[in-house]
Specification:
There is one protein chain. The chain has 9 helices and 15 strands. Bound molecules: flavin-adenine dinucleotide and FE2/S2 (inorganic) cluster.
């Protein structure tokens, strides 16, 4: 029987992790009331879902956990000062019931990534779905399906880096090359200092046989993409994820279009080659 895409699965908040010093970014682990629903919520890395709180509305949020984390799903959410849903979510206690609709969108090109070198570049808390991608690619059942993995991740300060413990663990592994950077020198910081585009130019990830996934604030993308182009990354092999105001998430309301594309169903992941064909304001 076909399920109604407007009806959310019931879930409960099972765990909350404060990700940053400013305490306005938290990761929420959600458990499905019905274990079968988790099976129905069969997602790919890079997809998103609509999270809802009764009486407050719903918001599209990227899925931050791996599809292979089979018992739960995680979302990392920033509290917007005037944001109705994100504020209520940040105030929510463990055990709070909520809803989840999805999965939605296309996700990262996992099939195309097989057998390739993978370069992942991120800045700030836009790292959420890329964290899902790294968790997935480093899973023992998946790791051998791709070749070298290079990760470059930056934040303004050490206190603003998300998923600190995981990144520390990944930095110690031999099967992934992780570079962490912060904008300015900070007490106790032993990683790189410098903006993401400068570090990309310095690390020089190889474009040979590579797929690049990149997510970050507009200013980071503006200066990093030319560095990738200089290094030789092809537009059709470089992917980024878009955020737009959305309503239905399933291509019905027309709220999220960029030219002829709906970000909710044609995206949110687009190659730079596709972006080049979009109207100039994007
Ligand atoms: C595909 C996709 C994935 C996303 N993934 C994440 C994620 O992983 N984590 C996360 O925290 N957020 C993510 N977002 C953004 C998130 O959906 C919005 O921040 C959220 O909907 C705000 O809801 P709200 O009810 O708190 O704010 P609202 O009450 O709807 O808005 C309050 C105010 O904040 C402004 N505002 C709201 N959202 C944004 C925005 N995105 N950019 C600028 N101003 C905004 C509004 O203009 C308004 O003035 C994603 C969005 C999309 C489309
Ligand atoms: S959000 Fe309704 S069409 Fe995309």
């Amino acid at each position: 029987m076909e399920t109604n895409p407007y009806i959310p699965y019931p879930v409960t908040i099972d765990r909350v992790v404060v990700e940053n010093e400013a305490r306005d970014i938290k990761t929420f682990r959600l458990i499905f009331h019905n274990a079968q629903d988790r099976k129905g919520f069969d997602f790919k890395v890079g997809q998103f879902a609509e999270l809802s709180l009764l009486g407050f509305g719903e918001s599209p949020i990227g899925i931050a956990s791996s599809p292979l984390d089979r018992d739960y799903v995680e979302f990392t959410v920033k509290r917007y000062p005037a944001g109705v849903v994100t504020n209520e979510l940040h105030n929510a206690e463990l055990g709070r019931p909520m809803g989840i609709r999805g999965p939605m969108g296309n996700g990262y090109p996992i099939e195309k990534m097989k057998g390739k070198n993978i370069v992942i570049i991120s800045g700030g808390f836009a790292v959420t779905t890329l964290r899902a991608a790294i968790r997935y690619l480093l899973h023992p059942d998946i790791r051998s399906s791709v070749k070298d993995i290079t990760v470059i991740y930056g934040a303004r300060t050490p206190g603003e880096l998300c998923y600190k413990e995981e990144f520390t663990d990944w930095s110690k592994r031999k099967d992934v090359a992780v570079t962490l950077t912060v904008d300015n020198e900070a007490q106790g910081w032993r990683g790189r200092v410098g903006f993401v585009p400068t570090v990309v130019a310095d690390v020089k990830p190889s474009p040979r046989d590579a797929i690049c996934l990149i997510c970050g604030p507009p200013v980071m993308l503006k200066y990093t993409i030319p560095e990738l182009t200089k290094l030789g990354f092809k537009p059709e092999d470089t992917y980024l994820s878009f955020e737009m105001r959305m309503k239905c998430g399933i291509g019905k309301c027309g709220r999220c279009n960029i030219g002829p594309k709906y970000v909710c169903i044609d995206g949110p992941v687009f190659s730079l080659a596709e972006v080049a064909d979009m109207p100039a304001e994007y």
